[in-house]
Design goal:
4 strands, 368 residues, 15 helices, disordered C terminus, mainly alpha
């Protein structure tokens, strides 16, 4: 890593910090700022997908699973905290459903520290176990993509059938966030700052991984897996780490999504959201660091804008945009700079002077 690249990275982080912490709160309304906070959660997921897919070649179509795990763990704690404020033993939706006893697996999430630890540990742990089972069997390519997508569908169906965690309606109507009133605009702005800070930390950590020895090994596994295995490395272990890191980011994003948006349901963690995460990464540029971030935010913003003006047109616009990018700009929007950059024309070497060509023949004649 050269000094110039480090300088550019620091300048980029400084500009992003000024935009997120200074410009955005000053020019956006409370509603738009809350929307941007939601988009930042999607961008955190996209950074992990960029690492696993762009660098590792793993087409992760099931990131909604890990996003949902983090989201539901946070939602369970928020519902428990609200019940404690009211002096109840069970959350409000359980009372409506006629449940009078709290399920045993809900009890630990009354503690904030336990909830935070679970959010940070459970999604990457699940990804680690799944990754070992999949990558050790050398499942890759389209087979891995289909398997991960089936996992997202199964997870959403499982949540629909569990009335103890809201069923198809999910969990909503949260009043507090670790003691802070969620109806207060100042606290909503605080959530935006938290999401912005987490995004910057995630991007910085991913950049460090990409520029490390592990990042080079991950790219080598993507391009020449058998050659890496021949050199004595186990490609499965390399993939498992990237898969777990992507799940770690998705779990954090899901946990932040819940207090920002105020609801989590099976519709937010199934196949469609998982594909939407991937579309943003593909459009932004999966092989770059900032491409997934910009793509996720841009696609989410376009979806919101078009849905407000043309409710039925967004699905077609999203599909068309995805086809155009994949078909004509495989590197995404971030790769347009490489396509527009003028290529240097290779100049042929200067011909050798006639005198230098004749010298060897003269030496041979003298030798004779």
């Amino acid at each position: 890593m050269t000094i110039i690249s480090r300088y550019r990275a620091w300048v980029g982080f400084a500009v992003a910090a000024v935009v997120l912490f200074g410009v955005a709160p000053a020019v956006l309304s409370d509603f738009r700022l809350n929307l941007l906070a939601k988009f930042l959660c999607f961008a955190i997921v996209a950074v992990g997908i960029g690492l696993a897919w762009g660098r590792g070649g793993m087409l992760t179509l099931g990131q909604g699973v890990f996003f949902g795990l983090g989201a539901y763990l946070m939602a369970m704690h928020l519902k428990m905290a609200d019940a404690q404020l009211r002096g109840d033993t069970v959350p409000d939706f359980m009372q409506i459903a006629g449940m009078r006893e709290l399920p045993g697996y809900w009890a630990p999430f009354a503690d904030p520290l336990t909830t935070i630890v679970a959010i940070l540990v459970v999604p990457p742990l699940v990804a680690f176990v799944l990754g070992l089972g999949v990558f050790k069997r050398r499942v890759k390519g389209a087979y891995f993509a289909i398997l991960s997508q089936a996992l997202a569908a199964a997870f959403a169906i499982l949540l629909i059938g569990q009335q103890s965690i809201g069923g198809s309606n999910g969990l909503n109507r949260f009043r507090t966030f670790f003691g802070f009133d969620l109806s207060d605009p100042a606290n909503k702005q605080m959530l935006f700052f938290i999401a912005a800070g987490v995004l910057l930390l995630v991007v910085a950590a991913t950049r460090q991984l990409m520029n490390s020895r592990y990042g080079e090994l991950l790219v080598a596994v993507r391009d020449q897996e058998e050659r890496v295995r021949f050199l004595g490395y186990d490609p499965a272990n390399v993939k498992v780490v990237a898969y777990a890191v992507a799940a770690f980011f998705a779990g954090i994003a899901g946990a932040l999504f819940v207090p920002i948006v105020g609801i989590i349901s099976p519709a937010d963690v199934g196949i469609v959201p998982s594909i939407a995460f991937l579309v943003g990464v593909a459009i932004g540029g999966r092989t770059t660091l900032l491409g997934p971030v910009l793509g996720a935010i841009g696609v989410a913003w376009a979806q919101t804008t078009l849905s407000e003006n043309f409710p039925s047109a967004w699905t077609y616009a999203q599909g068309l945009l995805f086809i155009v990018v994949i078909g004509f700009f495989p590197l995404g929007i971030a790769g347009l700079g490489k396509l527009l950059r003028p290529r240097a024309v290779a100049t042929p070497p200067d011909p050798e002077p006639e005198s230098s060509r004749e010298e060897p023949s003269r030496e041979k004649e003298l030798a004779r």
